[in-house]
């Protein structure tokens, strides 16, 4: 006889019934939605009016009828808020926008518009010297955004309160109003339609990334970050990202193809070589972060000196590049230089890992930190005075010649499909090829028996060893694989930067790459995933590159960001199912309750009875 446990129909886990939640501002629902729709429409109209009278503020916000600069961000945010609010009326053709939460996306999008418009008004006031420099358009958008927020706060909350806290305080009510239920199961679509949706999703992602990387001044980039953060969260609460994630999980090969197709299109959208260079450096550091993800994310080994393996690959490639400053005086073909960098890093990984990987936790972290510093100091000392003349000491190896593959010189611009690819764009495409190789290696490794053994060691090395897993050998394999992937990226970094110096490879510094930056990228993006470190490295490189006036406070901001991440999303921006279950309450008991069998049930009183 079986005993059934009542389950929540919307989830596959046991949940306690909640208490009905009330809106933050008690308003009739028709009035609240009308305010949200009207306020966002007014904010949108205000972007077509002048916000200031002078062109001294960046972006030329003086033109009527043609939004520019921060006005464009308010325009997009207002349009997104308007669509989410209109979807609540049940308008045919808009229901697909909110398969999850119905009202929390409206509130989040409205807050994003209000924050962006408020920031723009504050920036204009501060830079031009007072509110008198504002034109009516700024006030129209600001008031419209405020009205939209008030209306959104009056909308019904998507989820009931938890029975354990039926009467939260005001801050708890506000936080709860930003949550949303998971979307239901989507109806089956033809495969070609699902593939088109995936392609459209990556197309939107490419447009957003291209817009962000092409922002020309810090005020616009800060506004972009505000809109992107609130917009991303709103789309997540609406359930659109989970629907897209379900499609990408179903069509994995199509997803990878679409992702790399979008990445290939990036240099063709850039006319400024500086932005293409930022893209190339993002790919380099994202690839190194993905290699570190093998060590930290899969095997659970805390490596604080990982940037040294990037340096080993870069120095090895520079020494055989044919540079006039190279002490070896040889020039290998590119494929041989790549293998030299990867093999040199692999050898260093084995040599360093063999005596140290018997340590665990903080002790291993301290040893790897020491290795990173030893590498930098050694490269400084190999200058002919303190040691053999190999690396030219602090001067490094400059004047690394550009690469030429099959007669194609990557150092000069080329016209492809009517678009001029600059030097940085050429190396971006080369690095994209290496990124594809690293992604393939990571994916195959993670899904193999060795990858599952790494995960077992990460979760509980003692239990894994008891089950017959050779922990030391597999940890050494992870260390060596991660080191070789970093060396692979180091060979391209040496070519992109023209030179390698010891000061480029520190534990922490204001300019990436450094070990702290790489570790933060893995943690921020999501350990053990493919897209997580790529997104984390892109954010952590792009933000300092665009906000150079904050370089002195980079480590402080990294620390604050990590603390906020640990508090609100400890699994990272992109998390696998295991991490989500580990860090969040599911309502399911870890150990089943010890309940007596119902009357008439047949049980076993003793073993063997």
UniProtKB/TrEMBL annotation:
<protein>
    <submittedName>
        <fullName>Branched-chain amino acid ABC transporter permease</fullName>
    </submittedName>
</protein>
<feature type="transmembrane region" description="Helical">
    <location>
        <begin position="220"/>
        <end position="241"/>
    </location>
</feature>
<feature type="transmembrane region" description="Helical">
    <location>
        <begin position="253"/>
        <end position="269"/>
    </location>
</feature>
<feature type="transmembrane region" description="Helical">
    <location>
        <begin position="516"/>
        <end position="543"/>
    </location>
</feature>
<feature type="transmembrane region" description="Helical">
    <location>
        <begin position="34"/>
        <end position="53"/>
    </location>
</feature>
<dbReference type="InterPro" id="IPR043428">
    <property type="entry name" value="LivM-like"/>
</dbReference>
<keyword id="KW-0472">Membrane</keyword>
<keyword id="KW-0812">Transmembrane</keyword>
<feature type="compositionally biased region" description="Basic and acidic residues">
    <location>
        <begin position="585"/>
        <end position="597"/>
    </location>
</feature>
<feature type="transmembrane region" description="Helical">
    <location>
        <begin position="334"/>
        <end position="354"/>
    </location>
</feature>
<keyword id="KW-1133">Transmembrane helix</keyword>
<feature type="transmembrane region" description="Helical">
    <location>
        <begin position="425"/>
        <end position="442"/>
    </location>
</feature>
<dbReference type="Pfam" id="PF02653">
    <property type="entry name" value="BPD_transp_2"/>
</dbReference>
<feature type="transmembrane region" description="Helical">
    <location>
        <begin position="304"/>
        <end position="322"/>
    </location>
</feature>
<feature type="transmembrane region" description="Helical">
    <location>
        <begin position="195"/>
        <end position="214"/>
    </location>
</feature>
<feature type="transmembrane region" description="Helical">
    <location>
        <begin position="106"/>
        <end position="125"/>
    </location>
</feature>
<feature type="transmembrane region" description="Helical">
    <location>
        <begin position="137"/>
        <end position="157"/>
    </location>
</feature>
<feature type="region of interest" description="Disordered">
    <location>
        <begin position="585"/>
        <end position="609"/>
    </location>
</feature>
<feature type="transmembrane region" description="Helical">
    <location>
        <begin position="361"/>
        <end position="379"/>
    </location>
</feature>
<feature type="transmembrane region" description="Helical">
    <location>
        <begin position="73"/>
        <end position="94"/>
    </location>
</feature>
<feature type="transmembrane region" description="Helical">
    <location>
        <begin position="476"/>
        <end position="496"/>
    </location>
</feature>
<dbReference type="InterPro" id="IPR001851">
    <property type="entry name" value="ABC_transp_permease"/>
</dbReference>
<feature type="transmembrane region" description="Helical">
    <location>
        <begin position="275"/>
        <end position="297"/>
    </location>
</feature>
<keyword id="KW-1003">Cell membrane</keyword>
